[in-house]
């Protein structure tokens, strides 16, 4: 069996509990531990993978599909000894707030796995039973296997909480006291990524100790042992949930991977390889040129605004990218990648740094957070889309462009189709650049088009 770690609401400690569980499990077991993250998050999965040594897989039915979520979970949990998924927001909080679509509860139902519910016990005692009872009965289709009591203040506080929960016959699977010794620093888009944290090994060591001492392992381990999920997931018809690639050109794609560019879905990287495209990592911060003999460029999201000075200082790399794009190299850039291709980036301190200068606009950081699922309708052909294509993606950024394209790439709608947003994105040369992050899992035709474009254009490039 597997579990999903859920919170009664955001901010109750889902990530801390999940990391403590993974770290303790890794310390006590040599077996494979597969983790998952509900939703479009990039940073939490980095911490999962740092601990487990395996790529964390995102489970998002909006960016992909319900069938894809089931197939992905089955594929990656089937050869692991333990499988753990970290939820998103509160247990029943979905994409719109009006229903639980894309919520932790939605994923729990799809996978038929039990929920471990984290309760914030600060400033409450007997009322904790009413909260737990409400979550347990709100949707009878959800099995809550037990609770983890977080922010418990004292032995007396724990005694009161335990007495209150006794009548519910709901196992207490863990108790975390109020503590400030373990703090993972964050900034404007969430936790600071693992590659930037020199103190991470010691933090993980403390998390492992916390996990070893705060969980009831006799109750937890039987829940954690991965097994073949319910028949609804493993039935023969579901073998078609992950579309098989239809083209297999042997080409090389340069992928920007360093402290500035680290937001990539593990499934997307796998799909490139499954389709015969070799991803060649390179660093726009430290490498002076693109890798040799590449036929396409891939810039994911990340924090180019934080490393704008370093990116600007590497003029050779910027010139190398500019020459390749001007020569017609197919390029896919999302969010942080789009910012790097702009004329300049202006950071939070209002300092401005030159970038690649392919897109005639400035990416300027601000206080406003743009966040949410988007249905993007293609207004232009690009290496990724054809006019009229409708794809699902996700926006998450605090920058805005000072100039927009006079021929925008996308018209945007929210998850609710009646919500519309300003058209955005750029198509220039053979560049597809947008703030919208895309998961290729259930939209494989996009990746096929990009790889085919890279393969067909390579013979025309003269760098």
From TrEMBL:
Catalytic activity: cob(II)yrinate + 2 L-glutamine + 2 ATP + 2 H2O = cob(II)yrinate a,c diamide + 2 L-glutamate + 2 ADP + 2 phosphate + 2 H(+)
Domain CobB/CobQ-like glutamine amidotransferase residues, every copy: 252-442
Residue ranges of every copy of the CobQ/CobB/MinD/ParA nucleotide binding domain listed in the record: 3-189
GO molecular function, one term: cobyrinic acid a,c-diamide synthase activity
Entry keyword Lipid metabolism: no
Pfam families reported for this sequence: CbiA, GATase_3
Enzyme class: ligase
GO biological process: cobalamin biosynthetic process
Alphabetized CDD domains for the sequence: CobB_N, GATase1_CobB
Keyword set, alphabetical order: ATP-binding, Cobalamin biosynthesis, Glutamine amidotransferase, Ligase, Magnesium, Nucleotide-binding
EC numbers on record: 6.3.5.11
Bilayer-spanning residue ranges: none
Cofactor dependence: Mg(2+)
Keyword ATP-binding: yes
Residues at the site labelled Increases nucleophilicity of active site Cys: 437
Pathway: Cofactor biosynthesis; adenosylcobalamin biosynthesis; cob(II)yrinate a,c-diamide from sirohydrochlorin (anaerobic route): step 10/10
Family: Belongs to the CobB/CbiA family.
Additional note from the record: The a and c carboxylates of cobyrinate are activated for nucleophilic attack via formation of a phosphorylated intermediate by ATP. CbiA catalyzes first the amidation of the c-carboxylate, and then that of the a-carboxylate.
Entry function: Catalyzes the ATP-dependent amidation of the two carboxylate groups at positions a and c of cobyrinate, using either L-glutamine or ammonia as the nitrogen source.
Domains (record comment): Comprises of two domains. The C-terminal domain contains the binding site for glutamine and catalyzes the hydrolysis of this substrate to glutamate and ammonia. The N-terminal domain is anticipated to bind ATP and cobyrinate and catalyzes the ultimate synthesis of the diamide product. The ammonia produced via the glutaminase domain is probably translocated to the adjacent domain via a molecular tunnel, where it reacts with an activated intermediate.
Full protein name: Cobyrinate a,c-diamide synthase
Species of origin: Pseudanabaena cinerea FACHB-1277
Lineage: Bacteria, Bacillati, Cyanobacteriota, Cyanophyceae, Pseudanabaenales
């Amino acid at each position: 069996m597997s579990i999903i770690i859920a919170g009664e609401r955001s901010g109750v400690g889902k990530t801390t509990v999940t990391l403590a569980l993974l770290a303790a499990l890794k310390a006590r077991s040599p077996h494979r531990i597969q983790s998952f993250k509900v939703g479009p998050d990039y940073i939490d999965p980095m911490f999962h993978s740092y601990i487990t040594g395996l790529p964390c897989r995102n489970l998002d039915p909006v960016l992909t599909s319900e069938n894809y979520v089931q197939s992905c979970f089955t594929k990656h949990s089937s050869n692991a000894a333990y499988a753990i998924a970290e939820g998103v927001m509160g247990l029943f909080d979905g994409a719109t707030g009006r229903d639980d679509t894309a919520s932790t509860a939605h994923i729990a139902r799809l996978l038929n796995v039990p929920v471990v519910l984290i309760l914030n016990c600060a400033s409450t005692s007997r009322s904790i039973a009413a909260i737990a009872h409400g979550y347990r009965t709100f949707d009878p289709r959800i099995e809550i296997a037990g609770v983890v009591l977080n922010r418990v203040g004292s032995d007396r506080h724990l005694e009161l909480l335990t007495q209150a929960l006794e009548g519910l016959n709901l196992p207490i699977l863990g108790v975390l006291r109020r503590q400030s010794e373990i703090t993972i620093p964050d900034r404007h888009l969430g936790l600071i990524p693992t590659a930037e944290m020199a103190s991470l090994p010691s933090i993980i060591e403390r998390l492992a100790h916390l996990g070893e001492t705060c969980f009831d392992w006799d109750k937890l381990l039987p829940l954690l042992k991965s097994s073949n999920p319910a028949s609804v997931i493993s039935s023969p018809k579901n073998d078609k949930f992950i579309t098989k690639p239809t083209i297999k050109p042997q080409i090389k794609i340069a992928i920007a991977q360093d402290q500035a560019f680290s937001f990539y879905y593990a499934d997307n990287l796998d799909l490139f390889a499954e389709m015969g495209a070799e991803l060649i990592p390179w660093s726009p911060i430290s490498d002076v040129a693109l890798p040799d003999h590449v036929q396409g460029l891939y810039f994911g999201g990340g924090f180019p605004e934080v490393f704008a000075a370093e990116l600007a200082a590497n003029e050779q790399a910027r010139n190398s990218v500019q020459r390749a794009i001007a020569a017609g190299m197919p390029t896919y850039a999302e969010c942080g990648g789009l910012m790097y291709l702009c004329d300049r980036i202006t950071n939070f301190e209002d300092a401005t740094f030159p970038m690649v200068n392919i897109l005639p606009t400035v990416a300027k950081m601000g206080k406003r957070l743009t966040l949410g699922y988007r249905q993007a309708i293609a207004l232009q052909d690009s290496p990724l889309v054809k006019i009229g294509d409708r794809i699902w993606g996700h926006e998450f950024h605090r920058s805005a462009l000072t100039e927009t394209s006079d021929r925008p790439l996308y018209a945007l709608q929210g998850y609710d189709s009646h919500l519309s947003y300003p058209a955005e994105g750029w198509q220039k040369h053979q560049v597809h650049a947008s703030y919208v992050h895309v998961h290729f899992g259930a939209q494989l035709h996009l990746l096929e088009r990009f790889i085919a474009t890279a393969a067909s254009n390579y013979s025309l490039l003269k760098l």
